């Protein structure tokens, strides 16, 4: 199976109840219910593959903001 360069390993399933299970490499990473699930599905239906992967990463908290290294390198002001 070919992976797209933006494949972060996320998939999702919508249950009969309307709940959404977000899986990361086949394991449940998060479950959305109610309004959160409906909002997620609405965004996922109109997004590209990359946008959906990033959305799932944000929802699960498995999202790098890109500033970890720069924050680590900055010196702190000491009083």
Pick out its properties:
79 residues; alpha+beta; 3-stranded antiparallel β-sheet; 3 strands
Folded structure, characterized:
The longest helix has 12 residues, at 34-45. The protein has helices spanning 34-45, 49-60, 68-73, and strands at 10-14, 20-24, 27-32. 38% of the residues lie in helices and 20% in strands. The mean pLDDT is 83. It is globular and about 50 Å long. Strands 1-2-3 form a three-stranded antiparallel β-sheet. A hairpin with a 5-residue loop joins strand 1 (10-14) and strand 2. With 79 residues, the chain is an alpha+beta fold.
Quickly describe the structure.
With 79 residues, the chain is an alpha+beta fold. Helix content is 38%, strand content 20%.
How much helix, percentage-wise, in residues? 25-40%
> What is the beta-strand fraction?
15-25%
Put simply, the count of helices is 3
Mean pLDDT: 83
**Between the first and last Cα atoms, what is the distance in angstroms?**
56 Å
Please tally the β strands and state the result: 3
Global shape: globular
Major sheet details: 3 strands, antiparallel
Strand arrangement in the largest pleated sheet: 1-2-3
Structural class category: alpha+beta
Order of SSEs, N→C?
Answer: EEEHHH
Enumerate the spans where pLDDT stays under 50 for 5 or more consecutive residues: none
Write down the Rg: 16 Å
